[in-house]
Amino acid sequence: MFRIIFMAAAMASMPFAYAQEAADPVADLTPEERAAAYAAYAEDLLKDVSVEHGQIALKGAPVTLNVPDSIDYYDSQESQLVLEDLWGNPPDDTILGMLFPAGASPAEAEWGAVITYEGSGYVSDDDAAHTDYTALLKDMQAATRRNNSLLEREGYATAELVGWAVEPSYDAASHRIGWAKDLVFSTSGGEHTLNYDMRVLGRGGVLSVNFVASMTALESVRAAAPEVLAIPDFNEGNRYEDYRQGDKTAGYGVAALIAGGVGVAAAKKVGLLGVGLLFLKKGWVILIAIFGGIMGWLRRTFGGGTES
User: 41 or 20, which is more confident?
Assistant: First the structure.
């Protein structure tokens, strides 16, 4: 068992093409044995992880988290351990933390939420009330198809944006946005994946809380979303209402912010995914934001940060 786990971990650093050619160390195991091997690997990997609750200063953003006992917070380093070593995603040092249901191991949790921050400047919400989200969806679907060729060349799964799982909704009082996409990835065997996005607007940028789950978990995620979205608060002086003339602005509004989250979430075809330890988690597709092609398109279309 431990030889299997060691070989799986070692292959995580191999290029995908090589991993495909190498002998699959778990090929002869039953589904139950594979699940047990993955559980043992996860338990050993996370044995020193310590979750946090209460008031937490979020490193890397002018934000304070108020984490209830019903939610577990993993800091940036621990989150990278989960995303990269447990789930097999490419390295990403922009991850500031993750949230999980209290007491649930990341190897078994129904959902996880990834926290990131982009200091892009003040995002205007003037367009939020009159945006046609049906038309926006069509544009996003077209952008996803265009972006697939880039993802495929880079060794990522391609994606089909099926539609809204939850249509975008903006709370003008709290400056929080939530929406969910129904996605099908080329590596998912037709299984639908939920990508539930939430954003909190601040004076100098946007905090992102991105749920990762299967479509079957939609109701659980929908139920948890208000509690999770209430966790982050921008610090005094950095709140949306603290904006002053002359501050840096992002150069785009809420519609472009929503469009920027499409087509950039994909499963990396390397690591543990490459040796088949994760396919047993039915409906669970590992997502990680890779802001590349579409964010470049957004900046070209809407312009970069400006002073106003």
Answer: 41
